[in-house]
Design brief:
heterodimer; A: alpha/beta; two-stranded antiparallel sheet; 15 helices; 6 strands; elongated; B: alpha/beta; six-stranded mixed sheet; four-stranded antiparallel sheet; 14 strands
């Protein structure tokens, strides 16, 4: 562990990770402000109509200016000359309000948003009711009440999803980075031919266990440094848009419960120990560091699959497929953690998943230790799968 | 005492070691000899505990080789390797720690070995910057830093220039004086003859000969006589010895191979009576002679 702690790679990784955390925290706000500045629109139509529509569109469609009624579609050059990327052309006929959007990128037109924003004006034009009455008609009170013991409000439920998402990314990054480091460290020992001296000094399984244990400890240190730094830099609260767009949600680290933190640490360790042991064992089969990428590729498949299943679990934490995968080794550490944060998982399921995955660590460690012991002294062409099985049996 | 009894190791259909046995009393320096592929490295790996034998046993002072016993062994493998980016002193300390030394002890022992092997100027340099010979010295230090009771060195002299080979030989002699049991394999017979007390020659994964040099020589069937001057009278006496035959002579000397049981005092008296003898050597076979003869016999079998 001291060797790794003293290595330049560890500190560079720690600092880059820290920079990454800070960038990731600031990036959404930066992107929001940047896109708002660049995606401006022009309003076209009768000035009296525009005067009534402009306040309704101001929040969602920042305007770059106004034009009179359009008789033809604008060109891109004309849009750019006015500092806009689209034109919203408004007109009125017997059926009410009519809207045409001319956009450089039609995907940003957001017709449903336009319909929602302009609905009061359309109603007013059709019904000739006073503005206050129109607003009263469209403001249907909707009161969402949670029946879950987990969340009291919609905002709390949404914040939990954001937190789970951030922590899942952290879990993924830490497992991938540190497992890869173990693999390259084992491969370095193999290719530098120091392996035999090492396995003559300590039992190969002890060597692998020490490597995995040290890496897990340092990964937790990394995690603590990153989270503490984010907190220290005032990133513990940040406004984030809700999925529905109905209300703003504040992401807050303050909202992480001790249970969530415990779940994260426990399932992080379960996932890390499984993956790191596998990566270390497979690393011992490599004779050239150039082969690292091709050999590690298949090992990423369960991690990537687990990550995406966990993202799905944020929305449907108790669907049968998600529940089943929350027990499967290599995948469960991601999925069960996601379920714990966003729903009330029965205790027996958490306990069973823990037991299965702890047992899987034991099995993977036995298998990994054998592969490692054989692989460390195996030089020449990389062994085929059948050869590995044969050696393991012998 | 290290005792290896009827060791056997197979890798699939290949029998690397068929039946090898030897005993190494404490404080003995033991030479394990054999051609490439004879099974020396596999035997050493079984002794150190890297491979579990498929047959036979290895014991140290009567106890099987477990983790605790293994920590008292040192091993320099044939395949050399170091952490290239790690500094020399740190590397030696690291291996000391792996063998269970406390940090302060490991540092003190590392400094001792750095001085012993003349590596002071390289102590804080990364190992990758060292010459091959100096890297090999670092590897020896890594293997011996914890003051092992048994030090096993697989081809320790290969790749060393004569000066560094002498430094290593002096170091091994020093360890021997301090009572460390040593096991060496090497193709440098002259160096092994200098340092080893006992030998075991294996080929095809089996023992072919073993014992001290004197015991090996005692089993050797012939001796070579070098005699001067090269005259007909001397030649006649030598040819009268039963079972003798002439070898190519050089620099005015005659060489004859004679049976080992020849009465050399009588032969010398006969030569002195025949001519004015200026030189008479009854030469013992060298380790190399014995080795080559044993291996050829093994291959013929």
């Amino acid at each position: 562990m001291m060797r790794r702690l003293q290595s330049r790679t560890f500190w560079i990784g720690l600092l880059l990770g820290l920079a990454g955390v800070l960038v990731m925290m600031k990036l959404p706000a930066f992107i929001d402000s940047y896109t708002a500045q660049t995606n401006k629109t022009l309003l076209a139509g009768d000035p009296a109509l525009l005067a009534r529509a402009k306040p309704l569109l101001a929040k969602d469609f920042p305007t770059a200016g106004e034009l009179g009624p359009l008789h033809r579609a604008p060109t891109i050059a004309e849009l750019r000359a006015r500092g806009a990327t689209s034109v919203i052309a408004l007109s009125q006929d017997a059926h009410g309000l009519h809207v045409v959007v001319y956009a450089e990128d039609p995907s940003v037109a957001q017709p449903s948003q336009l319909r929602r924003d302009l609905l009061p004006l359309n109603l007013q034009m059709q019904t000739h009711l006073p503005e206050s009455q129109v607003h009263a008609l469209i403001q249907i009170p909707v009161d969402v009440r949670s029946v879950s013991e987990k969340f009291g409000t919609v905002a709390a439920a949404n914040a939990a999803k954001i937190i789970a998402y951030v922590l899942l990314v952290l879990l993924y990054v830490l497992i991938i980075i540190n497992s890869q480091l173990i693999m390259s460290s084992v491969a370095e020992e193999k290719t530098s031919r120091i392996a035999e001296l090492l396995v003559a000094s300590v039992r190969p399984s002890s060597l692998l266990a020490a490597k995995v244990g040290a890496s897990a400890t340092l990964a937790i240190v990394q995690m603590i440094v990153w989270v503490a730094s984010a907190y220290a830099f005032g990133m513990h609260t940040a406004p984030v848009a809700s999925r529905s767009g109905d209300s703003d949600v504040t992401f807050s680290l303050n909202g992480i419960s001790p249970g969530d933190i415990a779940g994260f640490v426990i399932f992080f360790l379960l996932g890390f120990l499984q993956m790191a042991t596998l990566f270390g064992a497979v690393g011992s089969l490599i004779n050239r560091t150039e082969d690292l990428g091709s050999v590690s590729g298949p090992l990423f498949i369960p991690v990537i699959a687990a990550f995406f299943i966990a993202l799905a679990a944020l929305d449907v934490p108790n669907s049968p497929a998600v529940v089943v995968t929350s027990f499967i080794p290599l995948i469960a550490p991601f999925v069960m953690f996601a379920r714990i944060v966003v729903s009330n998982v029965p205790f027996w399921q958490v306990a069973l998943s823990f037991v299965i995955n702890a047992a899987a660590i034991w099995g993977i460690a036995l298998l990994g230790g054998k592969i490692y012991r054989i692989g460390m002294l195996l030089y020449g062409r990389p062994p085929r799968f059948a050869q590995i099985v044969h050696l393991l049996r012998s | 005492m290290l005792q290896a009894s009827h060791l056997r190791k197979e890798f699939g259909s290949v029998v690397a070691v068929r039946d090898v046995s030897f005993e190494i009393p404490s404080g003995t320096t033991f030479g394990l000899l054999g051609p490439n592929g004879a099974g020396k490295t596999t035997t050493m790996r079984m002794v150190v505990g890297i491979y579990a034998p498929d047959g036979g046993t290895v014991t140290w002072n009567g106890a099987p080789i477990d983790e605790r016993v293994r920590r008292r062994f040192g091993y320099l493998p044939e395949e050399r390797g170091l952490y290239g980016k790690m500094k020399v002193r740190d590397q030696i300390v690291y291996f000391g720690r792996l063998h269970g030394l406390l940090d302060t002890d490991a540092k003190a022992r590392a400094d001792h070995w750095i001085e012993q092997l003349g590596l002071q100027q390289y102590a804080v340099r990364p190992c990758s910057e060292l010459s091959k010979g100096n890297q090999q010295k670092v590897q020896v230090a890594c293997a011996a830093v914890h003051d092992p009771e048994l030090l096993i060195l697989d081809e320790p002299f290969s790749g060393l220039d004569p000066v560094n080979a002498d430094v290593l030989l002096a170091t091994l002699n020093d360890l021997k004086r301090r009572g460390t049991s040593l096991v060496l394999s090497s193709h440098q017979m002259w160096q092994l003859e200098q340092i080893c007390d006992r030998f075991c020659i294996i080929t095809g994964g089996e023992n072919r000969a073993g014992g001290s040099l004197a015991q090996l020589r005692a089993g050797w069937p012939t001796r070579v006589i070098k005699v001067e001057p090269s005259t007909d009278a001397v030649r006649n006496v030598m040819q009268s010895v039963s079972g003798s035959h002439a070898l190519p002579g050089e620099n005015g000397a005659l060489y004859y191979q004679v049976p080992a049981n020849t009465e050399f005092p009588q032969l010398l008296r006969a030569l002195v009576q025949a001519d004015a003898i200026t030189r008479f050597d009854a030469m013992e076979p060298s380790l190399q002679d014995i080795y080559i003869h044993t291996i050829s016999r093994g291959q013929a079998d």
